Amino acid sequence: MPLLGCKNFQRALRWALIKGVSEMVESAQMGDQFSELVKKGSQAIQQNRPQDAIPLLEQAVQMNPESFDALFWLGVAYSLVQRWEEAANCFEQAKEIRPTFAPVWYNLGVVYWRMGRNSDAIDCFEATLQIDPNHASAKKALSMLISTKPEIDSELTPL
User: Fold this and answer.
1) Cβ partners under 8 Å of residue 94, min gap 6
2) How far is CA 8 from CA 1, 22, 149, in A?
3) pTM for the whole thing?
C-alpha cells in the first residue's frame, strides 16, 4: 500500500497543514498586534503622553526584541519621563541594529549627558556628526559639552 494512501499519514498530513496554517495566522495576527502597539506608542509620544506610550512599547519590545522602531520609540518615551538608564539601554540596543541612523546616536548622547556621562555623550555627538555632518543639534550639544569640559592644564599646579 502506498504511503500516501495510509489513513494515519493522511491524518498526520492534514493535522500538519492545519497546524501550519494556524501558526501562520497567529504569526500574522502577532505582527498586526505588534505594529499596532508601535503605532499607538509612537502616537502617544507625539501627543506628549509618554507615560501612556511606555506600556505599549514595552509590550512591543517583548514581542520583538530586535525591532529598531520599538526600541527607539521606547527610548524616547523613557527619556521624556527621565528614566535615563532605561532610555540608554533602549538606544544602545537600537544603535546596534541601525548603527548609521544619526538620531539614535544623538538621542543616546543626550541621555548620557543627562546621566553625567559627558565623555560618552561627546563620543555619541561626534558619531552623530560623522553620519550627518549637518546635524545642528549635535553640533550645538558638542560645542556646549566641550566648552564646559575642564582643561587638564588649568587644574594642575607646577611644583
Assistant:
1) 68, 71, 72, 75, 101, 104
2) 13, 21, 76
3) 0.75
Q: Is 15 exposed, middle or buried (0-12, 13-18, 19+ CB in 10 A)?
A: exposed
Largest CA distance in the chain: 100
Helices 102-114 and 84-97 cross at an angle (nearest 10°) of 160
Q: What is the pLDDT of residue 158?
A: 59
Residue 85 cell numbers, joined: 538608564
Per-residue pLDDT tens for 79-94? Answer: 999 999 999 999 999 9
Contact partners, residue 9, CB within 8 Å, separation at least 6? 3
Predicted local confidence at residue 7, as pLDDT: 59
For 108-153, the DSSP string reads HHHHHHHTT-HHHHHHHHHHHHHH-TT-HHHHHHHHHHHHHSPPHH
Secondary structure (H, E, C), 52-64: HHHHHHHHHHHHC
Percentage of residues in the chain having pLDDT higher than 70: 74
